Amino acid sequence: MWLDEADGFAEIFKGYLPYYLLVALPIFIIMSPVNPVAASHEFSVYRMQQYDLHTVPHGCRSSSFNLEGRFLTSWSTSRHCVVARVQDVSIDQFMEIRAKAGALLLVLPKNDTVLTPEEKEHIQLLEMAMIQQEVNAPVYFAQWTPEFEDIIRDLQHSFITDDKSGTALEAMFNSVSSNGYQIVVSATAPQKMDSKPTTLHGKLVGRAGAAQTIVVAAHYDSNAVVPELSQGADSNASGAVAVLELARIFSRLYSSPTVRGGPSLLFVLTSAGHSLNYFSVKKWLEERLDSTDASLLQDVSFVMCLDSISSSTDITMHVSKPPKPGGAAHSLKGRLRAPVAHKKINLADETLAWPHERFSIRRMTAFTLSSLQSHKDPSRSSVLDTASGGALHNLSANVARIARALASHVYNLTAEGSDEDLALFDDALGVDEAAIKHWYNYLSSQSRAPQTVTTTAPNSGLTAALERALSRYMEVTVSVHAVDKREPEYTLYSPTRAILYVYSVKPAVFDLILTLAIVAYLTVVYFAIQLFPRFYEEYAKIVTGKAKVH
Question: Where is the chain membrane-spanning (predicted)?
Answer without folding.
Answer: 20-39, 508-529
